[in-house]
Amino acid sequence: MLLGRLAARRSVVTSSVPRRLDGVLVTSRLLQPLQAEEVFLQECFLRRDFVRCFSASPNPNETQEKKAPVPEEEREPLSSHASPLTVYDHKVRYNDLSDDEFQRRIVTKFQHLYEKMATYRPSTSHSLFSMLFSGPASKRWARGGGGKSIPKGIYLWGTVGGGKTMLMDMFYDTLEGLDPEMKKRRIHYYDFMQIVHSRMHEAKKKAPPRDISRWDTYQPFDPVPPVGDTIMEETHILCLDEFQVTDIADAMILRQLFAYLFDKGLILVATSNRPPDDLYKNGIQRSNFIPFIEMLKETSEIVSLDPGVDYRRKALAGADKLFFVTTNPEDQAEEALTGMFKFLAAKETDMVKDMTIRIKGRDVHFDKTCGGVLDSTFEELCCRPLWTNDFLKLTQVFHTILIRDIPLMSQKNKSEARRFICLIDTLYDHKIRVVASGVAPYWELFQNSAISDLERLQENRMLIDDLGIKAADSGSLDSGVFSGEEELFAFDRTVSRLTEMQTKDYWKKWKSHVENR
């Protein structure tokens, strides 16, 4: 057995270290573990003999082409006021990035927006004409933002792994040097919509009471203006990562909300795997969403990025393998994850225990944690009614999450698949380190096998009833929300992110992410 072999090897390294690894390492030493044992485990991990398959098989061609980054002490310092193009050239010069003509074209677009942002600020005062006619029909370049010419944002779309998020983050980071007082925000689309829904709810609670004397008159309350105003108070340029509309509630809100924000002078920068015309594709009541797409095209420069290279997969060459297949005996999945948990727990100053986390008035219990490490299962994370807010809370409590026993996902367990996609998106966006095991390689976990209309009806019965859809009508169940098409598309992104999350560069990002959070 693996742990036995480790114990035998360790006895040669030092006689002062216990020979047994069967118990949880930190239960016998609640504070710092013995230094020799920690050094040994770390050495095993770094040398890839902690578990035989911790190392992914390197591609000889890729490893030969990739040049090692130049050490920081040998580099010329980069100015804190460097522009996106300067930062990109600096990264290429010191081998942090390859010089990609497709990426350079995108950086040039960001450079132009960067230069325009040096002088642009939304006007805080609006003319009477602007206030009367602002809204979905108003043209932002004519009236919104106090009549000034408002720069177009950037909507960047393309295949997974091409560097969209990296380029947007590079642009966002340079805005601090342009003007430290600039109101800006970078956030994942899911997180942003959670905030919007929460503020909509709060705005409705503060709505003025109905006039009882006009009880027979419709008295609508629009929560969009107060919510939009709070967003504009916080940010003038909004960077949204992974813009993908799959929820009907989001689709109905986006049109009104962004009509208001754009008219107030908001600049939107977004990344997506879909072109604008494919957003909310085959969605329910999509005709109501189409005006938002046209608005997006008018207010943003639509740019595609398809370098033909998945840089996440390329970076995997020679990386430590952190996903194990339970059906493959060579992976020794259970032992690998148990050994990894012990290694990580040894570096914590806490004991192994269960934990209950309070999230918006609900108690969410996990069976096995140690400090900032969560050892969980797919069932714990994705088979319970958890969503973005819950996963966000996990990123605030843990720095490393182990996910055991991920099953195959299809239309028959689509709810669990959606939670898994959302979970990985959230963990990736907050640079949480992930080690996982599943019944198949992670790129084969989602299988969109065809199911009958009857099975589809049974799986989505409650949603169909709520939306008042007649299942007997031809094509009524072909919407993306029922067909599994959106999940299959989104899972391509999940696969790409899981690939990057196994690289050493990604594991190093957590510390800097926390320091800058």
Describe this structure in words.
The chain is an alpha/beta fold and 517 residues long. The protein starts with a helix and ends with a helix. The strands form two sheets. A six-stranded mixed β-sheet has the order 6-11-10-9-8-7, sandwiched between helices. It has a five-stranded parallel β-sheet with strand order 2-3-4-1-5. It has helices at residues 2-13, 35-46, 60-65, 84-93, 101-117, 128-133, 164-178, 189-205, 224-234, 248-264, 290-299, 311-315, 333-345, 378-382, 388-397, 414-429, 453-459, 461-467, 480-483, 485-500, 504-516; strands at 153-158, 184-188, 237-241, 267-272, 300-305, 323-325, 353-359, 362-370, 373-377, 400-406, 433-438. It contains 21 helices and eleven strands.
Question: What labels describe this entry?
Answer:
517 residues; alpha/beta; six-stranded mixed sheet; five-stranded parallel sheet; 21 helices; 11 strands; 44% helix
What topology, given as strand order, has the largest sheet? 6-11-10-9-8-7
Q: What's the total count of β strands? A: 11
Secondary structure category: alpha/beta
What share of residues are in beta strands?
Answer: 5-15%
Molecular shape: globular
Main beta sheet: 6 strands, mixed
Q: Provide mean pLDDT, rounded.
A: 78
Number of helical segments? 21
Low-confidence stretches: 1-64, 126-147
Distance between the termini: 42 Å
Radius of gyration: 25 Å
Percent helix:
40-55%
